[in-house]
Amino acid sequence: MIETPFNYTGSKFKLLEQILPEFDYTKPYFVDLFMGGGSVYTNVVDKYQKILANDIIKDLVGIHQELLNSDDIIEITKSLCPDKTDAESFLKLRDDYNSNPSPEKLWALMLSCTSNMMRFNQKFKFNQTFGKRTWNSSTQNKVETFIKHIRPFRDKIRFTSNTFHDVNISSDKVMVYADPPYSNTEAGYNAYWKKDDDDKLYNFLLDIDRKGSSFMISGVLNHNGETCKLLTNLIEDKFNYKVLNFDYNKVSRVGKKETDEVIIMNY
Ligand SMILES: C[S@@+](CC[C@H](N)C(=O)[O-])C[C@H]1O[C@@H](n2cnc3c(N)ncnc32)[C@H](O)[C@@H]1O
Predict the structure, then answer these.
(1) 141-183: per-residue pLDDT in tens?
(2) Who is most buried in 64, 135, 206, 249, counting CB within 10 A?
(3) Atom 3 (ligand 1): residue with closest C-alpha?
(4) pLDDT: is 187 or 230 the higher one?
(5) How much distance in Å is there from the Cα of 237 to the middle of ligand 1?
(6) Pairing of β 50-54 and β 240-247
(7) Spacing, Cα 85 to ligand 1 middle (Å)
(8) What's this model's pTM, rounded to 2 decimal places?
């Protein structure tokens, strides 16, 4: 498995061994609807004819897109990363990103912020604090492995930055993987998740099913004692599901919580 160089909050990297064997490989096209750090599309890119990778955060998509094509982003991001002890430069970079955003600045912030967990306020301004960390040898190794793996597939990958319901699934030939943020979790990109998005995603998945394409959605059934309505509704609709076991301790603000991670499929 290839680990992408982002240490992304909510990354599915540790679950890939359980998730990937469950995809529908009879379809020629794959859509990673909420690609985040991209660990999923990266590890199925050789299995499908075409890949569409989407995320609502435009500069995050920009990082993936630029890394596919050139080393420039690597050099620029390295030069933007503050020194491990330089809180002032971090704050300057954060202000600079918030007034004049770019993929390189976002990546530098992701690498240097607390726990590598990017966080946005309700106005979509980056507001995570300095993590006393920066580009290091592990980042370098991951970047090199990632680009070596992904660039040969350049011609079959397309990136978009849309809200999920604007992604058009127009045929019965698509395997769609959905790994959305959830209202009952606390990740830093939840600012992008609107109140009615759970309902919209439910209808979006039913529509994929009606069209004859395949979907898998993954998520946490119980978190902090709260159940996820979207997932329980799909299970009540009698779609197939499997329970995985995962500890989302790192996403939570307080304490250690065991969670029930499930995948639900229409095939
Ligand atoms: C759980 S993460 C995906 C993690 C990813 N599977 C990985 O392995 O790194 C959810 C992603 O959904 C994105 N997102 C939030 N709201 C969205 C929306 N309305 N449409 C599309 N993407 C959205 C977030 O930016 C975040 O990257």
Answers:
(1) 999 999 999 999 999 999 999 999 999 999 999 999 999 997 6
(2) 64
(3) 36
(4) 230
(5) 24
(6) unpaired
(7) 30
(8) 0.94
